[in-house]
Amino acid sequence: MATFGTLSDRLTETFRNLRTKGKLSAADVDGTVREIRRALLDADVALVVVKDFTAKVRERALGDEVSKALNPAQQVVQIVNEELVQILGGAQRRLEFAKTPPTVIMLAGLQGSGKTTFAGKLAKQLEKDGHTPLLVAADLQRPNAVNQLQVVAEQAGATIYAPEPGNGVGDPVKVSRDGVEHARRQQHDVVIIDTAGRLGVDAELMKQASDIRKATNPDEVLFVIDAMIGQDAVNTAKAFQEGVDFTGVVLSKLDGDARGGAALSVASVTGRPIIFASTGEGLDDLEPFYPDRMASRILD
Ligand code: GDP
């Protein structure tokens, strides 16, 4: 994953220096922690996350598990790995399905974050797994949004519910509610609701998303965030958490070569798990998110 190239290189270098030492002094640990801190900050990881992370690593690295280890440097790397898995959310979390179909999945996020693309990717993956997803076009803000979802639905081989295609008017809350009802009648077992995104967080958008949430009672509300968004990630994620209270995160554009801090901050800051990683413009570029694999990639 290109996103973490620089961070990964920096940490590898830090650990290479550490490995030249036998027993580690407090100064060795502090030096290492300082380098890790700089590398994370340079990768755009949020300051609160960096502080918390480095404090935990430092405390453990100065403790018995390292001083008594056969290979102290290796033990420090192991600690960094474990703490990295923790900030990425700990255990893997899969999509949750309703006991009684349809499972309702609502998407939220800024415009351009990759929601519509993700809707298509998810629909395609669900189809492959034997589900019968219905895509609901509740982004009636952007004139072209419904058409775009239509194209994506076609590519994914999924059905779309859009009563007023392309004309930009209509009530997104009603469309969402009717969409879920339509799915129930037509026996679609999953409903994916694509909602409107603005360029920045705004109150009207949040109210609309919150109203859609109330009207459709989703099993999952997935917040789609562009991994390239950098330091804005934390504030955007917090605003969406307050506004719609999402249940999980989709990291999009992880194929880009940005510094990747969003990926490392968002789960930790919101306490919500990252469920998917979106890694390209094609509909097959979607992977479940595994915190442990991501940590290993970063530390490789
Ligand atoms: P929306 O406004 O949130 O619905 O965002 P879109 O789904 O329209 O995506 C915005 C742009 O990002 C489009 O040009 C997509 O092709 C592109 N895009 C979406 N997901 C990814 C991804 O994972 N990787 C890359 N490289 N581009 C993506």
TrEMBL record:
Q: Which reaction does it catalyse?
A: GTP + H2O = GDP + phosphate + H(+)
- The SRP54-type proteins GTP-binding domain extends over 273-286
Keywords linked to the UniProt accession: Cytoplasm, GTP-binding, Hydrolase, Nucleotide-binding, Ribonucleoprotein, RNA-binding, Signal recognition particle
Instruction: Kindly list the positions annotated as binding GTP.
Output: 109-116, 194-198, 252-255
State where the protein is found.
Answer: Cytoplasm
EC number per UniProt: 3.6.5.4
Which family is this protein grouped under? Belongs to the GTP-binding SRP family. SRP54 subfamily.
**What is known about what this protein does?**
Involved in targeting and insertion of nascent membrane proteins into the cytoplasmic membrane. Binds to the hydrophobic signal sequence of the ribosome-nascent chain (RNC) as it emerges from the ribosomes. The SRP-RNC complex is then targeted to the cytoplasmic membrane where it interacts with the SRP receptor FtsY.
**SUBUNIT field:** Part of the signal recognition particle protein translocation system, which is composed of SRP and FtsY.
What's the record's remark on domains?
Composed of three domains: the N-terminal N domain, which is responsible for interactions with the ribosome, the central G domain, which binds GTP, and the C-terminal M domain, which binds the RNA and the signal sequence of the RNC.
- For this entry, the protein name equals Signal recognition particle protein
Please indicate which part of the intact protein appears here, giving the first and last residue numbers and the full length.
1 to 300 of 516
